[in-house]
Amino acid sequence: MLRLLILLLVLANCVYFAWTQGALTQLGLAPTHQADPERLQQQVLPELLLVMPATSSPAVLTTPPTPTDTASAPAR
Q1: Averaged over 18-26, what is the pLDDT?
Q2: Is 9 helix (H, G, I), strand (E, B) or coil?
Q3: Measured at the alpha carbon of residue 7, what is the angle toward residues 2 and 11, in degrees to the nearest 5?
Q4: Distance (Å, rounded) from C-alpha 72 to C-alpha 65?
Q5: CA angle 41-45-49, nearest 5°?
Q6: Predicted confidence band of residue 55 (pLDDT cuts 50, 70, 90)
Q7: CB 24 within 8 A of CB 18
């Protein structure tokens, strides 16, 4: 029983691999090609993006909260 289960799982993996590689397109079983070109066209000034190294911490996390931030919170 266990051999049959393992054989079915291996067969299912082979069929899935063939489907993802496009080997089943002759049978009409091709995966859909997903592309999103409009997202690239909607970017606003991507050249201004600044990538920081992971070792530096952002200034927002290192500054203590200002008194106006704590005063605006409702008291309970």
Answers
A1: 88
A2: helix
A3: 150
A4: 12
A5: 115
A6: confident
A7: yes
Burial class (CB in 10 A: 0-12, 13-18, 19+), 19: middle
Dihedral of CA atoms 63, 67, 69, 72 in degrees, nearest 10, equals: 170
* Cα–Cα dist 42/47, whole Å: 13
Q: How sure is the predictor about 13, in pLDDT bands with cuts at 50, 70 and 90?
A: very high
Q: Which two tokens stand for residue 2?
A: 């266990």
Please give the distance of CA 4 from its chain centroid, rounded to a whole number. 36
pLDDT of residue 25 exceeding 90, the answer is no
Mapping DSSP to helix (H, G, I), strand (E, B) and coil, where does residue 3 land? helix
Q: Taking CA 15 as the corner, what is the angle to CA 9 and CA 19, rounded to the nearest 5 degrees?
A: 145
